[in-house]
Amino acid sequence: MSRKVVNATVNGEPVEFLAGGGQSLLDALRDELRLTGSKEGCGTGDCGACSVIVDGRLVCACLMLAPEAEGKRIETIEGLADNGHLHPLQHQFLEHAALQCGFCTPGLLMASKALLDRNPDPTETEVRYWLAGNICRCTGYDKVVRAVMDAAADLRQEKPR
Amino acid sequence: MSDGNQPPANLKVVGTRPIRPDGVDKVTGRAQFGADFHLPGMLTGRIKRSPHAHARIVKIDVSAAEKLPGVKAIVTGAEFDVGAGGDIEAGEHAAAMKDVADNCLANGKVFYKGHAVAAVAATSPEIAAEAVDLIEVAYEVLPHVVDVDAAMAPGAPVLHEDMFTKGVMPKPAKASNVAQKHVMGRGDVAGAFAAADVVVEGRYTTAAVHQGYIEPHACVAAWGADGQSTIWCSSQGQFLVRAMTARILNLPLSDIKVIPAEIGGGFGGKTTVYLEPVALALSRKCGRPVKLVMSREEVFLASGPTSGSSMDIRLAATKDGKLTAAEMTLRYQAGAFAGSPVNLGCMTAFACYDVEHLALVGYDVVSNRPKVAAYRAPGAPMAAFAVECAIDDLARKLNIDPIDLRIRNAVKDGAKTVYGATVRHSAFVETLEAVKAHPHYKAKLGPGQARGVAAGFWFNIGGESSAAVHVDEDGGATVVSSNPDIGGSRASMAMMAAETLGLPIERVRCTVADTTSIGFSGSTGGSRVTFATGMAVVEAAQKVVADLKRRAAQTWECDVAHVDWKDGVATCLDPSKDVKPLSLKALAGKSARTGGPIAAEVSLNAQGAAAGYGVHVCDLEIDPETGRTTILRYTAAQDVGRAIHPAYVEGQLQGGAAQGVGWALNEEYVYNAKGLLDNASFLDYRMPVASDLPMIDTILVEAKPNPRHPYGAKGVGEVPIVPSLAAVANAVSAIVGRRMTSLPLSPAKVLAATRAS
Question: How far B422 CA sits from the closest chain A CA (Å)?
Fold first, then answer.
């Protein structure tokens, strides 16, 4: 089976990996690069556990083919903390107990980051609709939404506009 | 142990909200879940599944698949050696091992679409998939039945020729789909109904729903040439996985080590095995580690949903609202094999209420659906749906406030349940009163809006648990838990240890051990971990404190009775000694001179898990154009004993309520005319997402700390799903203007009912 060499940037670092034509970006991240923080909950783009940011856009890594990553800039959960310093989203998820099992958490965090990257001051409704593609079965979303709102406030204080 | 011990006051750690010990791993992607393990030489496994609802397997031909390069092993149910079978205690239920084995790999017949028939291990996922396609299975397709009432009807296709209804005397002459009939009750029901001022009745149905954990089942199994094996897997109980796998493959327990991965949700659905015996059988055949991971479709098709149900209920009451009698028939789908939680449905149905005359009949009914698995308060939500809707009818008929009606009939300590237990340490009345006093219950509704109220009960269990506490040389401590952490239990374990030792929470770490590294424990289920394993943690920490006091006494050459332990410091009470207090850190630092390492392990069988009660209030509105329901406001109140980590207790209430809202409004297993599941995906099986829900307010009622637990804890995880179905349905019914009796209350169903009324 023929595999293609793919060059991309993952969490700021250049990577090179072999990808099969039918392989998803998620499988490449998990199986080739061993970045297992992105999770597969469905493989059909319904649960959002594999959410990553590709060239600034939020995508389900299970719906993107690995060879399509050529030349792309990919952000995964493994790159969210900065040199061991938690991102305000990570910090607020912990403060709010916004995770129970933690399986959907990487996807929720990446989706939330994509939201705050473009909308630093979202309303509760905006948060809820933006995160509607990330299923969490444990929390009922209450603490997740509060954590995202508080992280947004933290980030606004860090970077006044 | 007496019931009179009041849990200690002035706590420093218990009741606070520290960050969980495993938190950073889980927000950085570092936590290792079931599918995240990788071993050198590891093969990919894949399972061949039945395309039919019901069929006899005529022949399985694996010859073409075996010849495919890269295929290393193929197994069928013939590999299993479960012998006479027998049961294994699996928390809230006993698992019949022959059925569990036949569910892992079919034995002669397939009973539902997706039933596993064979499995392969190959050098790549692509080869494994191709090999599965090359396995040829010849089937003789049989008539099928998926509906519970149809499965009970005369002439229904019979799944198991050897199923003769248990609980019926004399033994039936003919096999049927009714595995068991449960009967319980008391008093003179007919007489009470004859004397009643008012009677309400109804027939209710609920659809089968899935636990919906986001992490699909996953494991890696590695057989060793010496016959010793290791399994890494996501489950609710490493010891249960070990026991079931050992029984199915006829291996001694000591030859299997199960290492628990982080678990991505379970809700009861991971208290059994689907993959582990198959993966180990494959590994045994080829000598290489094998990873098996279910797809989401496989999770829906072949792992346990909970029962769909049909129920008939009648209530009798006086005109001032005193319930005098109730009778109820419950018919629960078991799926392909016996074992629905209908007995638990019968036991819990009226557990909230003091009803003198009761008659309950439950039927455990098989049909061509996946074998059910436990789901959060198994059996209780459906029964509570019928009961709480009927009580709502009664409140309307008598024009009594629904909370007042429930207070009027609420069980109090000393009452006898229908299953024989005496009610103790219950705060149901306090929970109802807390809801009544809450601003939500007094808030005005807008036009077109309605409010639903419902209550619920769950037993909570204790049982066998082990834990260890190790004092580190630098004065910190490590807690070793025997239970997978499904929702933050490492935090509560560490907190209870810190409280007992007198250490700040930051100095205590908690780990979850494999089957060789800690004593036996029952599964993470039954809302038991904080109660039972927590009790083991506290007792281990108390032993450590006793040891520390002994060491201080030895150092001071005083009587140990003269050593006081407070806030992690030993103080000498003997006035004749002029000594400085000794901290835990100081004692730990010189442990080698006072008797060696400081540690204790405790194994116990925890008794006295007090039951919990919940009351939910739900405001909603319905779009008259589409029939779509919008939840506007939701409050969940619960009798929690004492909350160890209140934020995670609130999370249980919020998550349980959200699951119940999904069960009430949208979730269902949809079957086509061929008996095949039509909606095995998250797109078509519609669970609540963030935009479907409002904030979920919580009220933690701490009026009755559980005196049987050192810090007053009760189980909290399961109760909160129980009231939610009826809380939603009662509000929907109020808007529609007629009693809505069939879940889910999907937009189409609600629209049709609105137009009809």
Answer: 32
